[in-house]
Amino acid sequence: MKPLGSTGPWAAGPVTTRASAVLAPNPGWMTLDGTNTWLLVEPGAPRAVVVDPGPDDPGHRAAVLAAAQARGTRIAAILLTHGHADHAEGARALHEATGAPVRALDPAHRLGGEGLAEGDVVTVDGLEVSVVATPGHTRDSLTFLLPADRALLTGDTVLGRGSAVIVHPDGDLGAYLASLARLAELAGATEAAWVLPGHGPASPDPAGLIADYRAHRAERLALVAAALASGISDREALLDAAYPDVPDALRWAAHLSLAAQLAHLTGRAGAPPAG
Questions:
Q1: Domain spans in the chain, listed from the N-terminal domain onward
Q2: Which of these is catalytic: 33, 57, 86, 172?
Q3: In angstroms, rounded to a whole number, what is the distance separating the alpha carbons of residues 168 and 273?
Q4: pLDDT (tens digit, 9 = 90+) per residue, 90-148?
Q5: Which CATH code fits 13-266?
Q6: Burial, 204: exposed, middle or buried (Cβ in 10 Å; 0-12, 13-18, 19+)?
Q7: 170 is catalytic
Q8: Contact 144, 16 (CB under 8 A)
Q9: Is there a contact between 30 and 62 (Cβ–Cβ < 8 Å)?
């Protein structure tokens, strides 16, 4: 399978007129270059929005605050694409430092503010951010549309490189495939110019990247279906058939995605852990 997204370096920084990324110091197999914390500011406005404050790291928090100060703004709202710790763990400390409410789909991650749901529009000093429900990676996954920059902030639903892990049962492959289809429609309808992901480089080709994601998932599902049809049932053998290119260090993550695919193909609401 061809690599997904960019294979080049990512240093973060300004990407669009309104969006700049501050890269968290948490690189790894699952976080790629690190978590992208997005600072959104309407030109000339005194207040900013932060999307995904990242891990609870004092240095990263200081970098986010410094990025806002450099734009002459203060942080007025904190939005979460989903509740995984590498995106949301730093929300409480940033909330305490700024007083900005933390808004999320999952009530467990809200602090001092309203929730977020499909169709909501967050406005701060002329900045407009629309909320799109894109479950699948997690039940609470959201995408944020920044229409003025024709940008989609996709969290972990679409990454800047590589594919997203679907951790069943919180992650659901059927819902994820439906979310990718919806994002493809949204990218076309808005003539989207950017994917601003939760990890990895920003992509200037949303339609192409989302199409590659959909094709990649279809190919993986076809490999799993073919292996099952051939009589393979052992989980390790299934993994070898469906993920022949996975590094040893990521076999555990591939097992999680395999469990999601098996649940999807067999129509079961749950599936036993891969192992």
A1: 13-266
A2: 86
A3: 9
A4: 999 999 999 999 999 999 999 998 999 999 999 999 999 999 999 999 999 999 999 99
A5: 3.60.15.10
A6: middle
A7: no
A8: no
A9: no
